[in-house]
């Protein structure tokens, strides 16, 4: 009661063939097949490229503690100002 029988499926296929014709359906099938093939190729190429570099961005990821240490070595005056402000 809930499924499509073989006869109903054959009737739908016959109506589609009568509406569009076999040449258009053959061309549509070929276009669809080449699109699926191109999609699969692009996905496999993307997986191969993804294995080489595990980064999504163009910059190097650093931890917050490393950035803090780097900023302290670059600008020691700022470090002393913040220590003075902490005492107040």
From TrEMBL:
InterPro entries: TatA/B/E, TatA/E. Part of the twin-arginine translocation (Tat) system that transports large folded proteins containing a characteristic twin-arginine motif in their signal peptide across membranes. TatA could form the protein-conducting channel of the Tat system. It is found in: Cell membrane. This is Sec-independent protein translocase protein TatA. The Tat system comprises two distinct complexes: a TatABC complex, containing multiple copies of TatA, TatB and TatC subunits, and a separate TatA complex, containing only TatA subunits. Substrates initially bind to the TatABC complex, which probably triggers association of the separate TatA complex to form the active translocon. It is a single-pass membrane protein. The chain crosses the membrane at residues 6-22. The keyword Transport applies. The gene is tatA. Residues 42-88 are annotated as: Disordered. Keywords: Cell membrane, Membrane, Protein transport, Translocation, Transmembrane, Transmembrane helix, Transport. Belongs to the TatA/E family. Its main location: membrane.
């Amino acid at each position: 009661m809930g499924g499509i029988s073989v006869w109903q499926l054959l009737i739908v296929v016959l109506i589609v063939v009568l509406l569009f014709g076999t040449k258009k359906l053959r061309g549509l099938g070929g276009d669809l097949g080449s699109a699926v093939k191109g999609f699969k190729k692009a996905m496999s190429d993307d997986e191969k490229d993804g294995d080489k570099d595990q980064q999504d961005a163009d910059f190097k990821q650093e931890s917050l503690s490393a950035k803090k240490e780097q900023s302290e070595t670059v600008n020691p005056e700022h470090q002393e100002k913040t220590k003075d402000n902490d005492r107040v």
